[in-house]
Amino acid sequence: MSVSTDLPRNAPHVAGEVSSRTRTALFRRRSPSHGSPPPHSRRRAGDLAALIAGLGAGAVVGSAWILTSAGLDAAGGPATMAGTLTAMLGTYLSLVLIFVVARIPWLEREIGQDRLIAFHRRLAPFVVVLITGHVFFTTLGYAQSMSTGWWPQFTSLVFDYPWMVPATVAFALMVVLSVASIRRARSKVRYETWWVGHLYLYLAVALGFGHQLALGSLFADAPWLRLSWIALYLALAVTVVLNRVLLPLLRHRRYRLRVAAVVPDSDGVVNVYFTGNGIERIPVVGGQFFEWRFGTRHWWWQAHPYSLSATPDGRSLRITVKNLGDQSGDLATELKVGTPVLAEGPYGAFTADRVRPGAPVVALAAGVGMAPVLALLQSLPSGHEVTLIYRVVDFAEGSIPLRAEVEAEAARCGWTLHYLTGEISTCRIDDRALLAMAPHLAEAEIFACGPAGFLDRIEAAALQAGAAKERFHHELFVF
Ligand SMILES: Cc1cc2nc3c(=O)[nH]c(=O)nc-3n(C[C@H](O)[C@H](O)[C@H](O)COP(=O)(O)OP(=O)(O)OC[C@H]3O[C@@H](n4cnc5c(N)ncnc54)[C@H](O)[C@@H]3O)c2cc1C
Predict the structure, then answer these.
(1) How far from 294 is each of 199, 203, 277, 335, 413, CA to CA, in Å?
(2) Which pLDDT tens digit goes with each residue over 72-102?
(3) Per-residue pLDDT at 390 exceeds 80
(4) Which of 141, 224, 239, 254 has its CA 20 to 30 A from that of 21?
(5) Residues 9-18, buried b or exposed e (16+ Cβ, 10 A)?
(6) CA pseudo-torsion sign 400, 401, 405, 407
(7) pLDDT at 293
(8) Ligand 1, residues 323, 324, 376, 476: which to mutate, most atoms within 8 A of Cβ?
(9) Could you tell me if 321 and 272 are in contact, meaning their C-beta atoms sit under 8 angstroms apart?
């Protein structure tokens, strides 16, 4: 191991190490082969999922077009048809919105939760616009066919037609909660408040279902479409209940995870160790995270994502948590040995199976972002040249998370370790600086975890230095 020039000669060791007894008994690390994923799995599922969703959208719009185009010549025909097309596509996409965040294991594994949520966020405005278009055009079409005004027709639709009051509540919920999810609006409320509100979107989708079957003319004319539509809704309900409720509960019953140790690591950072039954069978690899639900009075109702900070060794799991808010700040005092834990997941595609056989690996971490990076590097099969760049503010006592372990692992595995010090705004992160620390950057697989600004600068510098975009993988600690 070679430690870079920034390390002051007398740099002290990090405080808060776990007692030697605890480590040897429970958490001795097994060889990296345990939990290593198959080499270089091809990411086809994501393309396949996109293709299926796209074909579905085409089938929905196509069948709606064919089934409603006969009415084009009637009074209000074009507006009603526009209302039906926007309804069908908007509703179909609202189901796709829920499918992508239904925590489907193979989708999570292949694409990664951060990208699924990013796709969810990008698609949501289209759903709101399409459903708003449906409300406007359907009302306009009816008004034109009845020779009335838009508003009187709208109120008549709401109060005189079956299932329209729930549908109107659904529309209002969707608009309000979508506006509340705009980043600026969301940053104004506590995450938990936003999250509970967001759950009402499931209710909105359910409330909108009745009027589709009761009033959808194309469902009356095409029983096969009606059956497929009901099947789609049922498939979604089963997928959500299965992956977001039953699977986590079944896994909890099977593995009975509980807190085994809570150990301070560095300033505002704590290591939490978990044990349970048959932990070696949990299908998790280094770099992945779980949504942790701690069985304590304050936190049982919230699930928070924390990455594993050590590759699974078949006996224990560990997370390393920085005090960034109310729950993460509470763990050190609230968690006790034996506290039951429900771990949803594993999730995340920030994993070693993305590395081509024999390729060099460059990993970059800022602060507690070292957690998934360390676990990922420990799960790497041997034969990869590894450069680890650790961005830290300074070498003050206890200021660097997992420092002793990072240095010990770097020595044990022969990684080249560089510290990048200074304030995030002042420390030099450009192509020349990266190439100086990792001359093989252009052909390397690059993994980075840290704040958004840090990741953007690293990615820009790496691409500038000739690295390929598809070889840059990142994990961001905010969704
Ligand atoms: C994939 C992933 C992996 C992570 N791994 C780690 C890790 O290994 N170690 C670590 O210290 N931190 C990690 N985090 C960050 C950690 O989840 C948040 O710091 C924690 O949830 C904050 O909750 P809080 O109640 O302490 O703070 P709050 O004040 O409630 O929230 C602070 C910020 O954290 C985010 N946040 C809060 N609750 C959640 C939630 N349930 N889901 C998603 N984001 C939330 C919000 O953006 C919020 O603005 C990870 C985050 C993600 C997305």
Answers:
(1) 20, 26, 17, 8, 34
(2) 888 999 999 999 999 999 999 999 999 999 9
(3) yes
(4) 254
(5) eebeebebeb
(6) negative
(7) 96
(8) 324
(9) yes
Place of tokens 């990869």: 384
pLDDT, one tens digit per residue, over 95-126 is 999 999 999 988 898 888 888 999 999 999 99
Per-residue confidence (pLDDT) for residue 136, from 0 to 100 = 98
What pTM was computed for the model? 0.87
State which H helix or E strand residue 347 sits in. Answer: strand 341-347
DSSP 270-310: EEEEEE-TTGGGS---TT-EEEEEE-STTTTT--EEEEBSS
Can you tell me the mean pLDDT for 48-75?
90
Distance 253 CA to ligand 1 centre (A): 25
Distance, CA of 33 to chain centre: 26
Ligand 1 interacting residues, C-beta cut-off 6 A: 190-191, 289, 303-307, 319-322, 324-329, 368, 371, 475, 477-479
- Residue bearing tokens 């508003």: 151
Q: Cβ neighbours of residue 450 under 8 Å, at least 6 residues apart?
A: 364, 365, 366, 367, 369, 391, 458, 477
Geometric angle at alpha carbon 391, from 386 and 395, rounded to 5°:
115
Nearest to 313 by CA among 336, 284, 292: 284
In this predicted structure, what is the pLDDT of residue 111? 86
Give the chain's mean pLDDT. Answer: 89
Q: Give the rounded distance of the alpha carbon of 479 from its chain centre.
A: 6
Looking at the DSSP bridge assignments, the partners of residue 366 are 391
The alpha carbon of 373 and the centre of ligand 1 are apart by a number of angstroms equal to: 17
d(Cα 329, Cα 321) in Å, to the nearest integer?
8
